Amino acid sequence: MIRIGLVDLDTSHPKVFTTILNSMPDVKVTALWDGRDVWPEGYDERFARENDIPHVCKRLEDMLEHVDAAMIHGANWDKHVDKAYPFLKAKKPVLIDKPVVGKVRDIYALLELQATHQTPVYGGSALRFAQEVAIFCSEAAGFGQIVSAVATGPGDFFSYGIHTTEMAQSVLGTGANYVEYIGENKTSIISVTYHDGFVLLLQLQQPYHEWTLNLYTTSGLHAMKVDAARLYEPFLHNFVEMIKGNPIPFTLEAPLEAVKIHIAAKLSRQHGGKIYLSEVPSEEGFDGAAFAAEYAAAKRRGE
Q: Which domains does the chain have, with CATH numbers?
């Protein structure tokens, strides 16, 4: 049996993911540890009882003996690398929920950890593996040359907007060269220019809960809309296959490039002009502690 542990219970994902994983053959969520950035003391014990999780760990390192892999769900992305470290060192694969990290320095640190310990790291947005995206990718070879693309999605600029960028990446691939923040009118519009000159427009913070991708090609317009009700099964299936040692269509560099695109877009919004990904300083990024505090306050208000 594959044993999986939960690191942090901050979002709705731990419960949803646990239900899906426990329904898979020979897979079980067996342990958890919560850092209490969002929930009070005692929440972890209640969560374990309600979700049939046998081990509630007092220290993160205590989980190692109970699991074969771990999932990190902390709202404070600035802690993700440190929390992944004991598992990677112990050769136990890790899933890091979106956003994988929030600062450039953590991008480099996570890539170095994966290379040093030769332990796979998975994660980011589940939209990358949505059924509609997989079908669209399989059809894209017949669309002809892609001239440009527009991806749209809801939510805030980074922690939720990253979904839109990763969805677009899954079809268009990586290789962004520079980013320019174009403007805003209820939504934020960002231009991403790839090394081959291809341009992707990201329209973030849409006022409705829907993700779309429009490809403008030599054969015409090709459009896709994702059904948000069916996101997680393919995402988690790939994680289980990774734990088993089977190849999956994923590289850690992709969600990390998406993070860097958003950091560059923030800098362009602040200072104007084009921001090259290769020139973004290592200290730049988004404040994970501030986001977690706001997230916890919203949960206390019942939002």
A: 2-126+231-249 (3.40.50.720), 128-227+259-284 (3.30.360.10)
